[in-house]
Amino acid sequence: MGPGVTLSPVEHVIALDVGGTGMKAALVGADGTLLHRARRATARERGPDAVVAGILDFAANLLAHGAEHLGGPASAAGLAVPGIVDETRGVAVYSANLGWRDLPLRALLAQRLGGIPVALGHDVRTGGLAEGRIGAGRGTDRFLFVALGTGIAGAIGIDGRVEAGAHGFAGEIGHIVVRPGGLPCPCGQRGCLERYASAAAVGEAWAAVCGEEGADAAHCAGAVASGDVRAREVWQEAVEALADGLVTALTLLDPRTLIIGGGLAEAAETLFTPLREAVRQRITFQKPPSLVPAALGDSAGCLGAGLLARDLLTTTDPSEVTT
Question: Are 216 and 210 within 8 A, CB to CB?
């Protein structure tokens, strides 16, 4: 390349996925290509103000990276965060893990990034958006994405978008009561699905049975695969509870595709084979959905944030999403 020749600017957006311990980010091209990736610690031990400052600094660095290496700054940004999120107002309403309440995160980020359009989304719904559009549910008009992690949450997909609900609570399948009067849940109810079928719940139940401190759901899955009878009992109890919750959701939502992700889904057919059978046994009049594993892994949230940002570039009034 000779003197004075410059590269044409590469159109891109900023995608940022904030978790309890780490943040994943990317610069995403117009065709969905990941042009740059980065990670940082969330540093929640330093308090909520430090977490917010870290998010804003990280995003500003991504903006600068794009300007320097891609010929110009990002056109928009998407941010996925945990907790209760009011996506319409751009407010992170509450996060127990990160310690914030009623935080106008979209406006703060838009200001830091020079006024470019910014979208704020719930982490699981954002990951579900990615799975539905470009992952395991690609091409499906109706899907339900369920993440089995420390807790259980879901994303209801309808024609390429994810339903947030009237108050931002849509998809909280982990708090369907599947065992009335059962184990207490931090939400205030007893017998919630996530107290029986989340990765954390399975790990807790298995540790109590095997007597090994630190045993988790992955250890339990391994023991199931090796034929341990005790592990199979723990695992089957979780599968039965999960099937009960899923069939309730299927009855209400009638999705075409049911996508299961999160840590517990990493057990692959150790989970999916008995789960498909348990769901099949419970279905009566309902049409069984295609039950498939998530395809995007831990990059789903970041990819979904990129999709949120790309969507802003097609809105008729970008100013609506920056304040």
Answer: no
